[in-house]
């Protein structure tokens, strides 16, 4: 991320504390701290505070891991009570009361109201663990090896997840060939010039095509890291129908777009189909604690005991906060309706900014929305300027050409307005007035 050299912001981001130990000892692979070098010490709701007392409005939300804000008191107090009582913390996949209560709440408040009949698997505690489990299960069940994914997809940093990821820089880090996967065009990849799935339908129907039937297709309904490309609901439904027709498992990676970020708990709900497998992580714990789920139809529950395991599957603190988050925010449609209304406010504000600049456009859905700029350096410069003005906002896309906003879902309308005002001011500092309304 770079910055311009005008009087509005500086070339070197403010650090707000001593960072020498990070620079001397920590690996150079670190990334977010290069753009936001302040030493953070406190957080509450949508605000993060640095060591020197600066307050930052958070339009990043832990890359989507903090949908309910920082240190939400409704989740914090039950967590502290659990710790004070000396309850079990680490338990592998043993039975615990915390896990039982989470599973019951997830069944009662999420699965049953949506008529979803899924088994729940606890893989390792991160999004890429959920994806790895999904890919491994799809291959085991079908007996096929190949998996199709989409242009500009991002599914994680471990080798299986990287194999179905599109980003060339991320893939390069693997150091070995990433095989048993092919990429197919995401929705509107050809700007409407090619019919949806025309090539895929043809090769699946043609026994002479030389293309083996895949075990699964994995898709994000909104490509969080790939440029905030949001698939049309009818496109997603058509993909599901195609998979059903050809006996291909459909995996929806809802790690970033799930847990309410697009306006409904699952990002695919409005499209009117049921995936075979769903990957969840990020905000499923509700508190930023590591946790992941892999959901799948009961007939796919074919792993042998211990065939896919991990030491940190039994994160009981995450079970506690995850249960409370479900009970507080998803017991009825009140919170969902509030999120959808505020998402409209966010989109309207971003649209107003985008309309100032030729070629700029709004992308994404819900609280996973941003602005594409035709100048590929613009989004990074605007994000850097916003940081100097007290806003944490990142970029997305293969060239970081999209300014990506993903505030906590609990962000107030007043905070949204404040953040949008900073983005507008930052855009003007980088690109000029454009065509103000």
Automatic annotation (TrEMBL):
Enzyme class, first EC level, given as a word: transferase
Coiled-coil ranges (or none): none
Keyword Manganese among record annotations: no
Obligatory cofactor(s): pyridoxal 5'-phosphate
Enzyme Commission no: 2.6.1.76
Gene3D superfamilies documented for this protein: Aspartate Aminotransferase, domain 1, Type I PLP-dependent aspartate aminotransferase-like (Major domain)
Keywords: Aminotransferase, Pyridoxal phosphate, Transferase
Pathway listed: Amine and polyamine biosynthesis; ectoine biosynthesis; L-ectoine from L-aspartate 4-semialdehyde: step 1/3
MF term (GO), any: pyridoxal phosphate binding
Gene Ontology biological-process annotations: ectoine biosynthetic process
Family statement: Belongs to the class-III pyridoxal-phosphate-dependent aminotransferase family.
Xref: PANTHER family: DIAMINOBUTYRATE--2-OXOGLUTARATE AMINOTRANSFERASE (PTHR43552), DIAMINOBUTYRATE--2-OXOGLUTARATE TRANSAMINASE (PTHR43552:SF2)
NCBIfam families with a match to the protein in the record: dat, ectoine_ectB, PRK09264.1
The protein, known as: Diaminobutyrate--2-oxoglutarate transaminase
């Amino acid at each position: 991320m770079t910055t311009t050299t005008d009087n509005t912001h500086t070339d070197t981001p403010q650090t707000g504390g001593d960072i020498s130990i990070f620079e001397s000892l920590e690996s150079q692979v670190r990334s977010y701290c290069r753009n936001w070098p302040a030493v953070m010490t406190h957080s509450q709701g949508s605000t993060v505070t640095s060591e020197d007392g600066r307050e930052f409005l958070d339009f990043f939300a832990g890359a989507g891991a903090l949908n309910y804000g920082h240190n939400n008191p409704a989740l914090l107090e039950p967590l502290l009570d659990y710790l004070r009582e000396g309850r079990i913390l680490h338990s592998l996949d043993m039975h615990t009361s915390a896990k039982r209560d989470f599973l019951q709440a997830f069944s009662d408040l999420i699965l049953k109201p949506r008529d979803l009949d899924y088994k729940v698997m606890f893989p390792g505690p991160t999004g890429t663990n959920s994806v790895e489990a999904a890919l491994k299960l799809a291959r085991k069940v079908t007996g096929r090896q190949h998996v199709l994914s989409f242009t500009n997809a991002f599914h994680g940093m471990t080798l299986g997840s990287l194999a179905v990821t599109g980003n060339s820089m991320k893939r390069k880090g693997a150091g070995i060939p990433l095989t048993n996967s092919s990429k197919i065009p995401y929705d509107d990849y050809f700007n409407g010039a090619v019919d949806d799935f025309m090539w895929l339908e043809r090769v699946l129907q043609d026994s002479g095509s030389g293309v083996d039937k895949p075990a699964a297709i994995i898709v994000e309904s909104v490509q969080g890291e790939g440029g905030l490309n949001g698939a049309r609901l009818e496109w997603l439904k058509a993909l599901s129908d195609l998979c059903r027709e050809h006996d291909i498992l459909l995996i929806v990676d809802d790690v970033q777009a799930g847990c309410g970020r697009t306006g409904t708990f699952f990002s695919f709900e409005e499209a009117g189909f049921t995936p075979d497998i769903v990957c969840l992580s990020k905000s499923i714990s509700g508190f930023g604690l590591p946790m992941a789920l892999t959901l799948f139809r009961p007939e796919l529950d074919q792993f042998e005991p211990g065939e896919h395991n991990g030491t940190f599957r039994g994160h009981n603190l995450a079970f506690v906060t995850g249960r409370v988050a479900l009970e507080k925010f998803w017991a009825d449609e009140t919170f969902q309706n509030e999120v959808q209304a505020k998402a409209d406010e966010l989109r309207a504000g971003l649209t107003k900014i985008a309309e100032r600049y030729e070629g700029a456009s709004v992308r994404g859905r819900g609280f996973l929305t941003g602005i594409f700029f035709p100048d590929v350096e613009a989004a990074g410069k605007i994000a850097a300027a916003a940081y100097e003005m007290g806003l944490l906002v990142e970029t997305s896309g293969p060239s970081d050409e999209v300014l990506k906003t993903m505030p906590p879902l609990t962000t107030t309308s007043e905070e949204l307005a404040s953040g949008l005002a900073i983005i507008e001011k930052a855009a003007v500092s980088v690109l000029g007035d454009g065509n103000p309304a």
